[in-house]
Design goal:
The complex is a heterodimer of chains A (about 290) and B (about 240). About 0% of the residues of chain A have low confidence. Chain A starts with 7 loop residues before the first helix and ends with a helix. Helices cover about 45% and strands about 20% of the residues of chain A. The longest helix of chain A is centred in the C-terminal third of the chain and has 17 residues. Chain A is globular, with a radius of gyration of 24 Å. With about 290 residues, chain A is an alpha+beta fold. Chain A is built from 14 helices and 9 strands. Chain B has about 240 residues and is of the alpha+beta class. Chain B contains 9 helices and 6 strands; from the N terminus they run ααααββββααβααβα. In chain B, helix 2 packs across helix 9. The chains are: A alpha+beta (about 290), B alpha+beta (about 240). At the A-B interface, strand 1, helix 12 and helix 13 of A face helix 4, helix 7 and helix 8 of B.
């Protein structure tokens, strides 16, 4: 019997998967699954992504009880081309939290009176003191030039905190944590404003806010490929420099696609240690066909 | 500042070989390029040109080499050795032979932007800049043949997303999910920029050139004329 390839659609149609979402979301599980499948169907790249990674990302969103609707901007599942250590190429789903998602989780904890974030324009930053904080005057804008971003919260118990970062500091943060920004593309480059707002909010919450279990989960899973939603085993795909040995990948593909002994002879001088098993296997396969 | 031993990159040979429309030996295209060479040498400022076509070419060069290796069933490795002679300095993409300076065949890989530009190369005369580039590489290596290979490989995701964003701007789309027309066009963009469904054999086009010593000699003469031009330009500036 031939094996049928697992697709996201077939995975989400499985009874055990349905039961898992039912357990997390109750009656809303059906519409949640529909929204996941709609997102996947509307994005050809996501449709090609490893179905398990889509499932794990969706499970995190369900655990956080955040809708996966791009218009709402709470949470997203986005495709990401990830190079594997053996040189092969895999499209995976990455879970991303929007800044609105962080605000939503903060509100839900019931401990926040106010939480917000905003760009700061030239003239609006009046005073900065590393100990006592920052003073802004929002009426003093002198130009349209954004000089930084500020996030602020005020707890019901009276504690309040502001975090401010300059555009330069945020660019340095993006360069440090995003390989794609370093290379001149990706979300940090294309939507710097949203990423900057999200970053100041995330840093403020992670450093100074009382973190609910959900908020901790959100901080851990944001911008990660979820290996296991339950154990919070994640891989930060945009933060890792996966070294790709393109020549090794080429050798591997040439072995896989070899149809004659001559094809294998051509590739033999270029073999590396990691190819030996595959090479021997292919050699035996071709021999047995004779 | 003397340009007596200035060496040109093979990729720019086509620019300095353009025929002048006047009686002057050096045409306007060549002059514009020589001005850039002069500024780079004198002030260390380099005019970098970047666009989506170049970006894809750089990002997917190794993918194209893999495609070419798979269809020819011959392993190719990107050459990283820069070589020079009295006239040129450059790094050929690929070669066949014992070493790059003993190459028998030079291979230059071009990654096409999309399937339309890819097949257009069959209907147009070969790009003259590429012809001259390969003659310069053959001059550098002693190779008697050269291949110009166009490859059609997938476009990186970031460039596909750029295209979708441009479309959203052009269509004034605020809410992408509420615009079925935008969604349909996005699907078409993705389809137009990914080619795994097309057989590998169909995704490469190769043109072969013989070494043309008469043209190489012409190129050497032109290099000497360009050096004179650069020296004169320096003198005219009192530098």
């Amino acid at each position: 019997m031939s094996e049928v390839a697992l697709t996201t659609k077939s995975l989400f149609a499985r009874d055990d998967v349905k039961a898992k979402f039912q357990e997390m979301l109750g009656k809303r599980s059906t519409s949640f699954i529909t929204s996941v499948l709609q997102i996947v169907a509307s994005n050809e790249l996501l449709a090609k992504a490893d179905p398990t990674s889509v499932y794990q990302s969706a499970a995190v969103a369900a655990t956080l009880d955040l809708p996966l609707n791009n218009n709402l901007g709470f949470a997203y599942i986005v495709p990401y081309n990830q190079k594997q250590k053996d040189g092969s190429f895999k499209t995976v789903a990455q879970f991303q939290l929007g800044y609105k998602g962080f605000i939503q989780l903060a509100q839900r904890s019931g401990q926040f009176k106010t939480i917000s974030a905003t760009p700061v324009f030239e003239g609006q930053l009046i005073e900065q003191n590393p100990l006592t904080g920052f003073v802004f005057d929002w009426t003093k804008k002198t130009s349209d030039k954004v000089i930084g971003y500020a996030a602020y919260f005020h707890l019901l118990n009276g504690f309040e905190k502001t975090l401010y970062a300059t555009v330069e500091e945020l660019k340095a943060h993006g360069t440090k944590y995003s390989q794609t920004f370093k290379k001149g593309y990706g979300l940090w480059k294309d939507d710097f404003d949203s990423m900057a707002i999200k970053t100041v909010l995330k840093l403020l919450l992670a450093k100074f806010a009382p973190l609910s279990v959900d908020m901790q989960r959100a901080v851990i899973t944001d911008q990660a490929v979820i290996n296991n939603a339950e154990t919070q085993d994640v891989t930060y795909v945009d933060n890792e420099e996966t070294l790709i040995d393109k020549e090794s990948e080429r050798v591997r593909l040439m072995i896989e696609q070899a149809t004659t002994d001559n094809d294998l002879k051509e590739i033999e001088p270029h073999l590396k240690q990691e190819h030996l098993d595959l090479f021997t296997q292919k050699k035996d396969e071709l021999k047995s066909k004779k | 500042m003397s340009f007596d031993s200035y060496k040109f990159h093979p990729s720019s040979l086509g620019l300095i070989m353009t025929e002048s429309r006047t009686k002057e030996p050096i045409g306007e295209t060549a002059k514009a390029h020589l001005l850039q060479c002069w500024i780079e040498e004198k002030y260390g400022r380099r005019k970098d040109i970047s666009n989506k076509y170049i970006e894809k070419g750089i990002a997917q060069e190794e993918e194209s080499i893999t495609l070419y290796s798979l269809v020819t069933k011959k392993f190719h490795k990107k050459n990283t050795e820069t070589i020079s002679n009295d006239f040129f300095v450059g790094t050929p993409d690929l070669y066949d032979g014992a070493s790059v300076i003993e190459a028998e065949l030079i291979i230059d890989i071009k990654t096409s932007w999309d399937i339309f530009t890819f097949f257009q190369v069959l209907q147009k005369p070969v790009n003259k800049n590429y012809y001259w580039q390969l003659q310069a590489y053959m001059d550098l290596t002693g190779a008697s043949r050269a291949k110009l290979v166009y490859c059609l490989v997938d476009t990186p995701i970031n460039l596909i997303e750029d295209e979708k964003r441009k479309l959203a701007w052009a269509m004034n789309v605020i809410d992408p999910e509420a615009s079925p027309e935008y969604q349909t066009k996005c699907q078409q963009i993705e389809k137009n920029m990914m080619f795994v469904d097309i057989p590998k054999q169909d995704r490469y086009i190769a043109f072969e050139f013989e070494r043309n010593q008469a043209d190489i000699d012409k190129a050497h003469e032109r290099v000497l004329e360009c050096r004179d031009f650069l020296n004169l330009f320096s003198l005219s500036r009192g530098l």
